[in-house]
Amino acid sequence: MQINSLSLAPFAGIHRLQVDFKPGLNVLLGPNEAGKSTVVEALFAVLFQSIKLKRSVRADMEFQRRAWQYPDGDHAHLQLQFLAADTQYTLTKHWQQEKSYAGLFDGGHTVMEEEVINRRLAPFLRYGAVTYANVLFARQHTFRNT
Q1: How far is Cα of residue 42 from the mean position of the Cα atoms in its chain?
Q2: Is there a smaller number of Cβ atoms within 10 Å at the N or the C end of the chain?
Q3: Residue 5, SS3 per DSSP
């Protein structure tokens, strides 16, 4: 899987941003509070966070608190463009009370059911969400273990 771009509109403290990636290693560089961690969190969310947020699940409510703009945000929206198996894909996730949706477009077909999307993504994401979380969110003091 080669990630081409990630669009945040809005997500967390970012109103609108498109990050374009190049083949190979990409480095996010900037001062504190520039949005580097938010971009990484958005990348993880678009790939792994369910659009079905449950009020009874603490992690879901914490995601909503971080992802929706403070103080009066009512939604978060992400779009990921990537290349996998010689096919260009666009993955969209939108979180909003009673109006959340997901879509995966492969140039000819669009899938809107989250369970089907997850099955379509599984061959490109060979490891579980926890493994990717440990790599994406590795802290300096735990980097040797990662």
Answers
A1: 4
A2: C
A3: strand
